[in-house]
Amino acid sequence: MLGKQPDVAPAATLAAVRKFTVPDLVGTVPQDDPHVIKAKLLANAALNEYIGPEISVSAGSAQWGTLAQAQIYASYGEYSRSLQALKRSGISFFALAPSKLPQEYLRLMFPQPWWNDLVADAGKNGLDPYLVASLVRQESEFNPAAVSPAHAYGLMQLLASVGKENAKREGLKGFQTAQLLNPATNLQLGTRNLKSVLDRFGEQPEYALAAYNAGDVPVRQWMTNGDYKDIAEFVESIPYTETREYVQAIMRNREMYRALYAGK
After folding, report:
1. pTM score, two decimals?
2. Which DSSP symbol is given to 147?
3. Angle CA 62–64–67, to nearest 5
4. How many CB atoms lie within 10 A of CB 236?
């Protein structure tokens, strides 16, 4: 309706913004590269702070250095370190076209550790395993030893009281809070807890995830006070920035998991 408009020169302030350059990423790491070999030895000695600098010395590491770091950490089961290496690389993976991003990066960004336990526990509670994996990714980055400042423990970041309550429901006798640092136990109790949250909010994952992060009371207030046309408008209207981005990230990640592993 506006028709063609005259071109307008960019504001002077924008001219100072650094342009993001996308490296030509490759999906393979030269395993015979001496710096990659040294980096693996450093990882074996738990000298993690030297892995990145060692790899960066190699010619061509701009194309595969981040991948090499992430693969090394993942090979030792350090999935949280692997994810952090990808996040700190400065590469905006979600902004890249699929043709620019080899699948190896995506599989490291959306890993499947403890997958058999996760799928079994999700199935027992009628949950989407990709939703559970996305929640774990957001809560703990797959670090089973994660303990938050609020004293939430393990993969699904369960409070001791929540763990105790669900352990009783599961018939686990002699429950101790330290058991929440065991991946199998955390997933068993965490999926049961997530199911109960979903049940309280009519199986609507966006409501349940908001409550998982912010608590039931605020979410009930938002549901009551807002005149939302659909669930997407509810999510966009969540007044807590952390909770809004938390819900959006998990729902996005669930679709990434489905695309990667379920062909959806």
Report:
1. 0.89
2. B
3. 125
4. 12
Domains of the chain, first to last: 22-109 (no CATH), 115-261 (1.10.530.10)
Q: Which of 139, 170, 203, 206 is catalytic?
A: 139
pLDDT value at residue 263: 82
* Residue given tokens 């403890």 in the structure block: 114
Reported as type and span, the H/E element at residue 166 is helix 160-170
pLDDT band at 17 (very low <50, low <70, confident <90, very high): confident
- 54 assigned to active site: no
Find out whether 209 and 250 touch, Cβ atoms under 8 Å: yes
DSSP symbols for 86-106: HHTT---GGGS-GGGS-HHHH
The mean pLDDT value of the chain amounts to 94
What is d(CA 143, CA 81) in angstroms, rounded to the nearest whole number?
A: 9
CA neighbor of 121 nearest in space, from 193, 197, 210 = 193
